[in-house]
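dumping the sequnces here before i forget
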Amino acid sequence: MSSNPYKSAVEHLQFDEAFDEQTIALMIDAAQRKKAIQPFRIPKSSWRYIAAAAVIVLLFIAVPLIKDPQNTNEITTAAAMTEAGYEITTAAAMTEAGYEITTAAAMTEAGYETTTVAAMTAAGYETTALTTQSADVYSPGTVIEDGTMYVSSTTSRLEPRSMNELVNVADNIFTGLCVSSEPVFQNDFLYTLSKVQVTAVFKGAFQVGDIVPVIEMGGRTTIGEYRKETTVEIKDFDHYDDSISADTKFVEGMDGYYPLKVDDNVLLFAGDTSGFLNDFTGPLYDSYGDYEGKMYFKNENVYARNTPSNTDQITFDDKSASISLDELKLLIEDSK
Amino acid sequence: MESPADLSEDISVIVHTYSTSVLRFAYSYVKNRSDSEDIAQDVFITYIQKAPPFDHEMQRKAWIMKVTSNKCKDYLKSSWKKRVTSLPENLGYLPKEESILISYVYDLDEKYRIPIHLYYFEGYSVEEIARITGNKSATVASWLFRGRAMLKTMIGDGFCE
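..and the predicted 3d for all of it:
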């Protein structure tokens, strides 16, 4: 075996002929046209997921017509989404958006027993979408409330980290108050750069009073800015509501969780992600698991993970994971 | 101003010189050949757009590696990536020992995996890795130490003699 078997193994990794002269010419052409680099990117628009959610709505609209309407114990996702204020996109709009309605039709023929997860999986989407759920529970999609459009996409995380895992994996655990929060666009994505002033430190080198820059996915901006700074290939805004103006407030979150805003009092399980933002020098942090590593002040010395929501209001329910700061200290002690 | 033919020739040289490093560095992040190739293209497009001047080739390579690191982090954090699950790579074409070694290294957490790749494949020093990854030297040294210890636990002393 060579003295550096790792180097030898990596050298043997095979890649396609990605850089022949024709590809290089295309790259030069794309670079010179600057904005014309899409041929080299996978389309990342989150709006396709909104359209996928609409497919599910279409699918489940038909269910009550077939199934026993007296079965009130089961609230379908369609009903929940309708109650939650979702508009139903027409089949024509879906077709225009590039989604196959035949998937829904085929599943309908199969007996209407398909859950939301199965439906989305069949449609080719990874999802943690809930199956049957009450109307006050978060469903991925879009909602307009008080003149603000809230969009929450669904990630493929199936196993949230436990509190023990968070304590073990996080280099920094502290409570703090969000003192500033601003949207940042990078590579077609919306992020939020917040500054959190540390109020208590449980793990790591921060000190009380330190200002910690924290980056999160999603953010708060206007629809006009979002359209300008990101690649929205499918104009779902237009399908959704033609009347929405560019200065309408726009809030993007993930899985029903939203980025920090000023005055949020949080417990953060943070890691170093310095260098992530191209235009931000200096140390930069993010919370583990995106939203899992961020808990909000609940009462006295207890912090809890907020209930996922279609808006960015912070609420808690009986199922909210919570921890007192005393319990946290014990967990950290045990982990050493 | 450089003619299109000259530009193409210059870029071609740069791409061929650094594509091996960029592809494999990106692969160490995203663990997927197809995504690595997309990221590598994006890196070189950024290079062509910015056309930064360098006094030394080492500076040029360090810049390219830094951009690669940033783009990989962007990709891994992107909402697109978070919604999809890549198929596991088939490394069956590698000799068994190498395939196992690669899988052990790439199973490590990113903070250990990346310094190990840059140290053992690229031959960068701890200080250089710190600059590329945007961390402190002491942190990188610590990650390298721990990463090596983990690999030693898994595969004994056979990782690097």
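Chain B has a mean pLDDT of 83.
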